[in-house]
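Summary of Year 1 activities. Much of the first year was spent building the evaluation harness for sequence design. The harness presents a backbone, in tokenized form, and records the residue chosen at every position. We chose the following record to illustrate the format because it has been used consistently in internal testing since the harness was completed.
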């Protein structure tokens, strides 16, 4: 029996039938994936399962992943999505749930997190209670850069409004030790979201909003690789950042 697949389905609260519909296969096929030890689905079906469950291929079918393992500097690239909106919400949820040491959200507004992740604020408070460092890096809603970007985006729900929604949500959880927020303009066109040794990176394109940005899922495998370079970028922005809540800038 594929215990890893069965466990991932339980964690995602997904039945055999739901997974079959999501992957475009018969329910009996899903049953065989679970029951028959050593059975490996076709690549396109493995990828569909991973997206549906928010799990990695190396966890569900390690033998298949080992055959395709990369050894060059691009081995830290787990997945690529042409649009952030194409990155499954289940992947974000899985990365948040598994993080134990650090959660850093360096998006210019971070607005979509509350929109797409159920009870996101509660999850952040729970993570902080468990000892995970939780940080938010935001753009200043009143800055000239924000106003300039609003002109580029030219959408009804303005950048400054989205930032202020995030600030209002953060206000609800700011009393929880371990949660901190700072303003920075250095990530106006590059969002970096870190979950321990996993990371989602979205370079923003001109005249595009965040959900239209190409997106990379990275995992740290080496020193001074892609992961470490983006992580260093965020740490420098954090060091230079201005506290959102005055008197709380020592975190």
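For this record, the design step produced the sequence shown next.
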């Amino acid at each position: 029996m594929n215990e890893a697949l069965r466990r991932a389905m339980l964690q995602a609260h997904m039945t055999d039938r739901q997974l079959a519909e999501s992957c475009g296969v018969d329910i009996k096929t899903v049953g065989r994936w679970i029951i028959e030890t050593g059975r490996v689905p076709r690549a396109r079906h493995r990828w569909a399962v991973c997206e549906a469950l928010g799990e990695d291929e190396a966890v569900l079918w390690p033998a298949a992943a080992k055959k395709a393992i990369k050894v060059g500097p691009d081995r830290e690239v787990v997945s690529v999505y042409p649009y952030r909106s194409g990155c499954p919400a289940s992947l974000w949820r899985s990365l948040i749930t598994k993080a134990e040491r650090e959660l850093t959200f360096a998006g210019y507004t971070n607005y979509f997190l509350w929109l797409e992740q159920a009870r996101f604020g509660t999850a952040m408070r729970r993570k902080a209670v468990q000892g995970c460092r939780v940080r938010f890096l935001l753009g200043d809603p009143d800055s000239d850069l924000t106003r300039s970007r609003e002109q580029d985006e030219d959408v009804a729900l303005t950048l400054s409004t989205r930032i202020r929604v995030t600030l209002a949500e953060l206000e609800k959880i700011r009393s929880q030790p371990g949660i901190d927020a700072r303003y920075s303009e250095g990530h106006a066109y590059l969002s970096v979201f870190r979950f321990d040794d996993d990371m989602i990176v979205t370079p923003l394109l001109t005249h595009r909003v965040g959900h239209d940005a190409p997106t990379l899922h990275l995992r740290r495998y080496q020193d001074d690789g892609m992961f470490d370079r983006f992580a260093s970028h965020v740490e420098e922005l954090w060091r230079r950042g201005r506290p959102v809540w005055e008197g709380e800038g020592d975190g």
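The mean pLDDT is 90. Quantitative recovery figures across the full test set are reported in Table 2.
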